Amino acid sequence: MARAPSDTLLTGAELSAFVAIVETGSLAAAADALDLTTSAVTKRLQTLEGHAGVRLLERGNFGARTTEAGRLLYPDARNAVNALQRVYNLIRQQGAELPMRLGASHTVGEFLLPVWIAGFRSRAGAALRVSADIVNSRRVRQMVAEGSVDVGFVEDSEDEPEGVDSLPLQRDEIVVVVAKGHCWAGLSSIPPEALLSMPYCTREHGSGTRSVAESTLSRIGVDLSPTLEVASTQSLKRALSGGGFALLSRIAVDVEVASGVLCASPLEGVVLERTLCAIRPAQRDLPPVAQRFWQWLGESVSSSGLSYSPPSAP
User: Fold this and answer.
1) Per-residue pLDDT tens for 66-102?
2) Given phi > 0 = left and psi -120 to 50 = alpha, else beta, which region is 28?
3) Which of 94, 138, 226, 286 can pair with 206 through a Cys bridge, CB separation 3.0 to 4.6 Å?
4) What are the percentages of helix, strand and coil residues in the chain, rounded to 5?
5) Is 254 helix (H, G, I), strand (E, B) or coil?
């Protein structure tokens, strides 16, 4: 008995199920080919037959075979499935050509992110393309919020607002850094109050390192006033040759400390630590490659932690 044709929207899923049944000879075999349950394949076939208003397949102990209507439909259905597959492949190809957009704070971007990208590339393949902006933590958060980057990396412990997912990656210590020959060079620790007696050199406002250091010290009554502010960690390290001190990530000065150009000491009785985090918009789907990168970061942390090995000193 003919059925009234359905006016619901037809999708490629129903056509794919029909073609698979015809080509494999049974619903169970089609389900295996499509990695679906038999009931799911049956439902898709019923939806397609609802659109057609007639039976397209006969089912029995012999499996499944086409009715006259099914035989007429099959060639065009196969062509439609082939066309959909070409479109799908084209979309994947275009997506693969788009770079993964990252935004990173200076410490993460200059010293950690290149190592992490190399580790992910070994899994994702050499075709991986990355576009990375190295800015301060405040700007990274803005870029994530406005959608100009897929994943951001920040270096302070600020609570992320609603709508932002945060993934803790690594602990980092902020230390007092001076040039070789400074009167503090080689000291095992520096009293916090002593910082008020020396010129303070620092990064610009918005730097995660500066924010964590100054807010922690302010809570114990040590309010620092900069004599020099620069937007580059490398420039800040070079500026220390003229005297004064900086509060920097130990990661950022490992090479210079190893070579003897700079000296780093912790603060006495004060824990200056922060968590380096990856952030992403919670309400927006990431592009496929960025989603895989996010998952890779989480897996790396949960398995053994993302470690940093400083390069050898020249």
Assistant:
1) 999 999 999 999 998 888 888 776 666 555 556 889 9
2) alpha
3) 138
4) 45, 20, 30
5) helix
Which secondary-structure segment (H or E) carries 87?
Answer: helix 68-97
Q: Are 67 and 45 in contact (CB under 8 A)?
A: no
Contact 276, 111 (CB under 8 A): no
Question: DSSP 3-state assignment of 261?
Answer: coil
| Nearest alpha carbon to residue 226 among 208, 214, 234, 242 | 214
Domains of the chain: 12-95 (1.10.10.10), 100-170+275-303 (3.40.190.10), 172-273 (3.40.190.10)
Is the pTM value of this prediction over 0.85? no
Sign of CA dihedral 207, 178, 306, 122: positive
From the list 119, 134, 94, 82, the residue with the least C-alpha distance to 299 is 119
CA–CA gap between residue 91 and residue 102 (Å, rounded): 22
Token look-up 């009234």 returns 4
* CB of 104 closer than 8 Å to CB of 140: yes
